[in-house]
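name: query_chain
kind: protein
chains: 1
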Amino acid sequence: MLEDVKEEMEKEDVKEDAQVGVKIEYDDKNQLVGEISENLSLNIAFIKTVFRGDKDIVMKELCSGGGNSFFVVYVDGLTDGFMVERSVIQPLLRYEGEWGEQVEKSCLSTIDFSKQETMQDAMVQLTSGNAALFLDGVNHCVTISSKKLPLRGVGEVQKENSMRGPRDCFDEGIRTSTALIRRRIRDTKLRVEQGKIGERSYTDYAVLYLEDVAKDSLVQRVKKDLESFEIDGILDGGMVEQLIEKKWYSPFPTLQSTQRPDKAASAIMEGRVVILFDNSPECLIAPATFNTFFQAADDYYSRFMVAGFARILRYIAAVIAIGFPGFYVAVSTFHNQVLPTDLVLKIAKARETVPFPILMEVLMMEIAFELLREAGIRLPGQMGNTIGVVGGLIVGQAAVEAGLVSTIVVIVVALTAIASFAIPNEAFAQAFRLLKFLFILAAGVLGLYGFFLGLLVLAIHLSGFESFGVPYMMPAVSGKYEPKEDKKDFVLKYPIWDLRKRPIFARPKEKTRLKKREK
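structure:
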């Protein structure tokens, strides 16, 4: 049955191709096969066959002032039609000279154009928003940069908010995102290497780094990883992040994501590599370490005492987010003797009417709060925030009054949720949210032995973890490196005038980033 349907579809394709007199062929990678012909009629028939039935394709055959034919085609909605008419069509209509390969240099009133030799390259440029110009008697086409993509523009950052610093953020246009970084790093050694990824989406991506600061091995490794797989389409950088990570089973991300151009620019000047994707409002930063996820943008815009205190709070919040519920389950179930007598009595009194064991009680409340958090994310705007806060208060209070949970468990779960929000990077915080349940189960089965066994396993996992050749726990786990300078920007942040050296990511000869001018 399936073979009959396939044969029928192939017959229909051949029938439609025959209507215009051109047969379309594709190679093993689903790319068009064929060179651009000098015969304009063949090129027109080829394009009409490729885009048969597509109403958003604008195409027109015209004649120049000298009587030579040319053909213009572009995608309505992706291309600036007025710009094409003004810079391409009108000059060619007035052109009375001989038709030749150099006509585009003397006639087109735009400098941003390129030649395409094959139909595949021409169609990729066309579907990217550029206009394609075919000339009679010329065996290539000219693609003119005339994109007018439906973008929302540069807006205010929604995540990673800070008290000080710039408010702009990346948008879904890759050229806007590269411009935001160029605006901050006006160095001629800033490299912006662009390519395409996805066999059908042909998504543009850009790799940005400082040529004299970033290590060649890091840059080449990032490029190799981006070219190491074939996929139909890439719709967001998060898909690439999952494809190129080495230890897929770990909940901890090996690339740092951010919406902030200032954070991306800072990473580039440290010697790291930034990867931007079209249609994605975030960039990926490689490599990433455990410490970089605790660094917020305003740490470097505020006084070092304030920034240092805030960073200590984040590390404490990470410990609470991953271990506080499990620790409570362990000590209240198996090891009451480690708690003061008055506290033990208060816990027992609060649980007088609770019908569930402590492990079940904590799991129920944690799942309820995670549901509220997920619902708040899916609801629009202020409604989501309201559901998260008010819903948590109402559910917690109602559960206590119904005798399903104790007040102490509500305090533990609420404090854990607040601590998870204090971690600056959302993807990193999600790892703590997942591991929290493993610690609860381990503590519920083995008590403090299970709790500390979980900490040991986590420490071993992170100590043997790497991100593009850099130890994940740098500078706490240094290995063969010298982390003396890196420790100045660790749990405690030193004053900015003392951060004279770049981190381990940079080339050894380009370590210095701050020094006093000689008088």
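note: The two ends are 86 Å apart (CA to CA).
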